[in-house]
Amino acid sequence: MDFPLVSVALAYDPVATPFDRVKFQPLFDALPLFEKLVGLTEANDIRPPEERKPKEVGECLYRCGTATRADYEGRGLARALAAHLMVEAKKAGFKATQVGTVNNRLNEIWERVPGEVGAGDGAGVEGAKSTVVSVVDLERYEEEVVGSDGVVRKVNPFLGAKVLRKCIYVTL
User: Fold this and answer.
1) Considering the chain, what percentage of its residues have pLDDT values greater than 70?
2) What is the DSSP letter of 71?
3) What's the mean pLDDT when you consider all of the chain?
4) Which of 11, 35, 59, 115 could in theory staple to 125 by disulfide, Cβ–Cβ 3.0 to 4.6 A?
5) Does residue 2 sit within a domain?
6) Measured between alpha carbons, how far is residue 162 from residues 40, 55, 134 in Å?
7) Would residue 1 count as lying in a domain?
8) Each residue of 75-86: pLDDT tens digit?
9) What residues does the N-acetyltransferase domain cover (predicted)?
10) Total domain count, the chain
């Protein structure tokens, strides 16, 4: 590449490319709270269990990661990337996309997606609609842990991070 990479996004079809735990194990090893976060997100999902996973190829595109270099934040790159992803997913025949966030700014972008009625931005997919299906408040989350002294204590393994982890389902 002869240009600077400033923002990236990852997405996949979970039916065409099912989750492979073995491939993700190095990520879980490096970020042990990631697996806990995924589990909490699934546990808080408001949809009936049978509606949570797509059943056919092309039904729902999962967004599984995004990053923008700090010196390029605030320039609208994540929103433009979201709009582009939605347009390309719709062209490819996807009916929806699902986004797991751990960033309050991404929550704002995906909760009012480009092209959604009232967004007034002329980008994205006209008529797209987002629905928050799961929320985990990392600042207030607590779990009970038994210490070596046998005393049960409430702890926040996320160290009170001021972030709402959300799973947002977007109908295209």
Assistant:
1) 92
2) G
3) 88
4) 115
5) no
6) 16, 34, 17
7) no
8) 888 888 888 888
9) 36-103
10) 1
